[in-house]
Amino acid sequence: MPASTGSDYISRIDRLQTNVWIDGTPITGKISEHAAFKGIMKSQAALYDLQHQPEVREKMLYRSPTTGQWVGMSFLQPKTKEDLTKRRLMIQEWARLNNGMMGRSPDYMNTVITALASSVDWLKGKASCFPENVLAFYEYVRENDLSMTHTFIDPQVNRKAFYFEESEEPIAAKVMAKNENGILIKGARLLATQGGITDEIVVISSGGVHVEANGFAFAIPSNCEGLRFVCRESFVGGDSAFNYPLSSRYEEMDTIVVFDNVWVPWERVFYCDNMAVANSFMRTSAYLPFTLHQVVSRQIVKTEFILGVVQSIIDTIQIGEYQHVQEKATEVIVVLETMKALVLKAESEAQLDEAGFMRPDQTTLQIASNVYPRIYPRFAEIIQQLGASGLMSIPTEKAFQSTIRKDLDQYLQAASKNAEERVKLFRLAWDLTMSAFGTRETLYERFFFGDPVKLASQLYHEYEKEAFVKRVEKLM
Question: In the chain, what are the helix, strand and coil shares in percent, each to the nearest 5?
Fold first, then answer.
């Protein structure tokens, strides 16, 4: 089966009838028609449709090495630096369709699985590891263009440095039993973004220090028996693209994943009962360089959009003559050009790994992943400072259709836009930075790859500093 279309994606997810709960109620009927999901599913479908457009098809797709069919470029295992460029161009083409607002667009998980499949040699010969299953799953999702979510995080019960769960009933998901057919999983995991609206879920344990049952990785269909997705409150404010220009389109639901005695067949298990592998595979595999390359490529597009919003506010209310305004806009420009330079540097300094795949320079991408979580909250602050009271004076679409339209036209006009155009822009800025959707975006980017302090510590320990120390010693 070739690359999916939007209708393929929506009909597949509707047919799954995945067990999804929101506000204490299970979703029945077509999930694509539910108020919390119809906007994001429509946006996701548009991504699948875009890859079939004749003018961009060769940028979005490539010929499968096994079937010769057109498959998604985000599944491409890069063997050259040119392949990395192809991947970036495809990622950014998709990102421009949603202005980088969809952190879990399909290319993210496609990249995750591609990275793991490119590192299966590392699993060979290790106890309770099944590299052939990783490869088989990779080829399965590639050839069928399936969508995926994932869960990597345990519930936040106790965040002490050393915490050992002692409850009789498991809280964090773990292996409870094994037989000739598979492994039995019970417990919960966080934080599956787009949970319930994907074909598959990939589950990778966070490892640990003592219990082998906590070390596992597998993938299963989202509608497996015993699997539940429990949603947070929806941040979709409403259907109106005037009132909620971002949340009505791009609200990616986050879910708690409950495994209520879920049997995972052996052919879907990547590894289990091996804490050493669970603690090291994600760190030593192509996961970090490949996924960071995807993330930074998307964040560049998102930063371009933010700069567009900033400059639109400046132009609309004519504040460009003030140096403090110029300084704020320049902050965004500096980050944008820094991120672009870093991703290009990562590609130019890429090297082949032991398996013959081209890994972008991980250190460079780690630097980008340290920059963005710290600066993204500043973007929201800049927009709030520039918009000021204008971000409060934002009546709804209905108000412009009422008898008070004349008042709005008179009192909410801007130097370069009429009242309706100005309010549309400021509602967009509000939805980006101040709505529930916007504040979730800030939190999401702040912790995209984990705690920023831990990311900095990891970079510090891994960065090669000895040569610089020797230069100091030589001088002394």
Answer: 50, 15, 35
